[in-house]
Amino acid sequence: MQTSEGLYHRVRWDARFDPARFTLGVLQRGAEPKRVPLTSFVPGGEVPWHRVLFFEADGEVVWDRRTGVDRIDLTEAGRMQAPRRLPSPFFEPTTPQNWDGAAWGTTAVPRSGSSTLRVLTWNTLWDRYDAELLDTARRRPLLLEALRNADADVIALQEVTSELLRLIRATEWVRKDYTLAPGGRDVDEYGLLLLSRLPVTEAGHHVLGPHKALSAIVVESQPYGLVTVAVTHLTSDHTAKGPAVRVRQLDEAADGLAALEGPTVVLGDFNDIGNTAELRLGLTDAWTSVHGSHDQTPTFEPCRNPLAALSSLTGGSGRLDRILLHGAEARRAVLRGDIPDADGLFASDHYGVEADLGPLSDPFVETTARQVREVFAEGSVHLVGSRRLGCALASADLDLIAALPGEVAIAAVRDRLTAAVPDATGLRVVEGARVPGVRFRVGGLGVDLAVVGTDEIPPNEAVARRSELGRSAAVALSAVSDARAVLELVGTRRDAFARLAGEVKAWARARGLDSAPFGGVPGIGWAVLAARTVCEQGASSGPELLKHFFGSWAAWDWRRAVGGPDTEFPLTVMTPSEPVRPCTERVSTAGRDLIAEELFRAWEVLETHPDPWPELLAVPPLDSRHRQWLVVTAPEDQTGRVRGRMHGLLRALEETGASAAHAWPRPFTTDPVRYAIGLGPNPLDAARLTDVSSDWVRGLAGVTLTPWEEAGAPRLR
User: Fold this and answer.
1) CATH class of domain segment(s) 622-707
2) Tens digit of pLDDT for each residue in 106-146?
3) Mean pLDDT value across residues 691-707
4) What is the DSSP letter of 95?
5) What confidence score (pLDDT) does residue 153 get?
6) Which of the following CATH numbers is that of domain 92-357: 3.10.150.10, 3.30.70.1350, 3.60.10.10, 2.60.120.290?
7) What is the pLDDT of residue 539?
8) Rounded mean pLDDT of 387-409?
């Protein structure tokens, strides 16, 4: 039979129970026991534990000191109606601690939600090794002062020792404002600690291996609702086969995190300078979201920080500490502790990373979509593409399609957007596609709006009745029904699909295979292949599902169409809704062979590399593929027309003898805009190239097509 104190704390912190449905019976001299709601009982207060006689849940006695009844695990009474946010068995429930004015305990302290969400991660440097060189006694006050100055809502610490935990517990500002959630029963074992000044509704812990774990809390922030914040510290290269161990730890963590609902923030020391963690966890890096992928500001800097130099194996600097996000958007990201004190002492061998999170959704996406809907309130505006499917990469455009009554005057559409979206830049009409459209940017977000006139059909019926509007309009509007069809196909496995499709799109982008105008497979094509993989592989998820994807499609006989009858095209993936059609009609025979080769290579990398992502996302060996290059240079206002006519250029080059020509889908310079086209292993003579060039640039004002004169391939990305 468990003790009354143990049962109280179990009900209070185990998210399977609803404390509001429990009542305690307290002994009174000469009177019937007094019934006290569990939520009003103060442990360690005036009533000692031995006077607690019984617990009731929903009117049922579930524990009774006098009779020995202990039915808490044998009844549904008192159980939470809603599931845990940190589900068992992956997360073992743990008990947060609060300062009640006299001691640290488990009494819940009322806290108010915050209108902001600032998070901070910091590896604090334990002194198990080289203690005499680390000056811990002087460093600790520097660390505590830096933590206070950060003014963070949630602080995630690694390498916390029992002595540091004692200092933190003794600190007045911590006692006053923060709930503590030590990672595991013994903080020295895992070194993880979360501090939150937001209300903590749950806490949990998962062991990843010896001395390594993932600890999490669920906090309540007023504008965002419930947010899961997790901290981890992965194995370093001081351990044999460190990269392989980290991959296993990340994959295990990814499986647990995939089951979480709502926004998630994962912080910690990932002991890797690449983007393996964000890719394997399917999360977005806050630092690169704010500063760009080119910014590799280190958080571990042996050349400048003597504490880092003591533990470094190579002397190399890198960004080991990260804040990774799902359903959240970083607005600001800065370092903490990167400036030493007057004596040159740093607070730790790592710098802290702090981020301010804005509304936990993409504000540009939501705000811009809302603005467009308000502008065209008489019509029906739909979100399509990867953002509708939940698998958008960080750089993905916002794709919208507007069904407007009557006939479309695209110039009037442009003018209305100009007036209503004041932050829009580069707003221009796009013609030459199936239906006209407008393209613009808001902040760092590119927006593509296609517009369909619905004649006499009500705009809200346009998608369902698209076949009545002609082929071009029907195809454009099928972007809406295609997305619906994919999501219906994957059913309850949307999370697994979103992760797989996002990983596949990242790979295809890195290898230059992701653009239909440039002879690649468009986003809907990769989404269809990912959806079919998810459906065919049952319960598979994470890395295993990715292996299935590449293994299955590497072995596919591309003489067979995917999702429909065979066609004359070299590679055929059919769209999933009417009008059913190939979305890969621009893939050439050489393009098909290249895609098949890349699929097989990716499958082989996944099978043989403990850390496959650097290889998967590496730029292809272009120097060995192409002995000759052409460069398309275009003014900004001509790039849309250049992209639209790129397929024609590739066909002309193929007919001239460049059967393995491949156009890289992204410009390698932006001022001016320049695209690179590799011509394959066999060079073409200048006369043929001149003929192709003069024919193709005709009508493209300011556009040139010239040989690449410099040594080696252009630096593509």
Assistant:
1) alpha beta
2) 655 655 555 568 999 999 998 877 777 888 999 999 999 99
3) 90
4) -
5) 93
6) 3.60.10.10
7) 72
8) 89
Distance CA 305, CA 348 (A): 9
Model pTM score: 0.56
- CA quadruple 652, 657, 661, 667: dihedral positive or negative? negative
Residues 72, 66: Cα–Cα separation, whole Å: 16
b (16+ CB within 10 A) / e for 359-386: ebebebbebbbebbbebbeebbbbbbbb
Provide the pLDDT for residue 361: 47
Cis peptide before 579 (omega within 30 of 0): yes
Q: Rounded to 5 degrees, what are φ and ψ at 168?
A: -65, -45
Q: How far apart are the C-alpha atoms of 433 and 277, rounded to whole Å?
A: 39
Give yes or no for a contact between 490 and 535, defined as CB atoms under 8 angstroms apart: yes
Q: Which of 77-86, 330-339, 539-548, 655-664 has the lowest mean pLDDT?
A: 77-86
Domain 363-462 falls under CATH 3.10.450.350: no
Query: Is residue 24 packed enough to be buried (19+ CB in 10 Å), middle (13-18) or exposed (0-12)?
Result: buried
CA atoms within 13 A on the CB side of 678: 25
**For residue 70, what are the β-bridge partners?**
63
**Mean pLDDT along residues 248-275:** 89
Q: Fill in the amino acid letter for 496.
A: A
241 with 610: CB under 8 angstroms?
yes
CA triplet 83, 89, 91: central angle to 5 degrees?
A: 80
Parts of the chain belonging to CATH 1.10.1410.10:
488-616
Contact present, 543 and 613 (Cβ < 8 Å): no
- The pLDDT of residue 534 is 93
Mark 112-135 as b/e (b = at least 16 C-beta within 10 Å). eebeebbbbbbbbbbbeeeeeebb
Integer Cα distance of 74 and 279 in angstroms: 42
Q: Which range among 4-13, 123-132, 373-382, 626-635 shows the weakest confidence by mean pLDDT? A: 123-132
By the 10 Å C-beta count (0-12 exposed, 13-18 middle, 19+ buried), 49 is classed as middle
Alpha-helix residue ranges (DSSP H) falling in 228-326: 242-257, 276-281, 286-291, 306-311
Q: Considering all CA atoms of the chain, what is the largest pairwise distance in Å, rounded to the nearest integer? A: 111
Burial of 5 (0-12, 13-18, 19+ CB in 10 A): middle
Q: Compute the average pLDDT of residues 709-715.
A: 81
What are the residues whose beta carbons fall under 8 Å from the beta carbon of 170, sequence distance 6 or more?
A: none
